[in-house]
């Protein structure tokens, strides 16, 4: 069995899940995302990968209802990075930050079953270190001087 589920999008805008041999909705695709099921959406006419477009469509639906995740200011700031020299660095920074946040959320839930206070102290220290490393990488990319954290910490 293929490790990546293939979903075909037909000209009538319907999505067909080839693994279960039936048409599905965007809500079903969202469910795949929530269950960490690897998938790819392809245009049935030319096999072009349109996964990003479908994920953006799901995000748009999520943003339109209830409480949005992104404020207008956040969206404007993200748009400003398109086409600029920092677009690639920003994308890596954002992706790494989200992966870190998700991983720590999982670790936190697992660790809270042990000693909650020790867990909080350990995660806080780890957060400070990781965010510092991410910040230093971003500063290096934009060409700004990076302070020597170890030197600063020993003072």
Automatic annotation (TrEMBL):
**Organism from which the protein derives:** Caldichromatium japonicum
| Span of domain PHA accumulation regulator DNA-binding N-terminal | 6-65
| Name under which the protein is recorded | Polyhydroxyalkanoate synthesis repressor PhaR
Q: Domain PHB accumulation regulatory, which positions?
A: 70-108
Q: Which InterPro entries match?
A: PHA_DNA-bd_N, PHA_reg_PhaR, PHB_accumulat
Task: Name its GO BP terms in alphabetical order.
Answer: regulation of DNA-templated transcription
A Pfam family cross-referenced in the UniProt record is PHB_acc
